[in-house]
Design goal:
The chain crosses the membrane at residues 12-35, 71-92. This protein is mainly alpha-helical. It has one domain (2-97). The protein has helices at residues 2-32, 42-61, 72-97, and strands spanning 65-66, 69-70. The protein has a two-stranded antiparallel sheet with strand order 1-2. Helix 1 runs antiparallel to helix 3 and helix 2 (42-61) crosses helix 3.
């Protein structure tokens, strides 16, 4: 049982880290759009490739353009925070219960 509990705890820790890294990617990509970056910059391309598919998925279900401001990054961050607070804590609780 201790092996399973440790495995679940390790998975929860990795999920927490990945969620936080992606939140920072979304925040940085959103901030970069305010300064009109060079679209040929490799860092800008990586950030947009990591975020645009998620934004497109959200835009299929929710109109995100309000008053000229795209709220897709905010929605992504809120969903990721929910995943972090709910799923990760649930996994930690499960590993502690074992």
């Amino acid at each position: 049982m201790i092996i399973l509990a440790t495995l679940i705890e390790a998975f929860a820790t990795i999920l927490h880290t990945l969620v936080n890294i992606y939140i920072w990617v979304v925040i940085i990509a959103a901030l970069i759009t305010f300064v009109r970056p060079d679209p040929y910059n490799p860092i800008v391309q990586i950030l947009f490739r990591l975020t645009n598919p998620v934004y497109a998925f959200i835009r299929k279900f929710v109109p995100t353009l309000i008053g000229g401001v795209d709220l897709a990054p905010l929605i992504v961050v809120l969903v990721l925070q929910f995943v972090d607070l709910f799923a990760v804590k649930l996994l930690f609780a499960l590993s502690n219960a074992l």
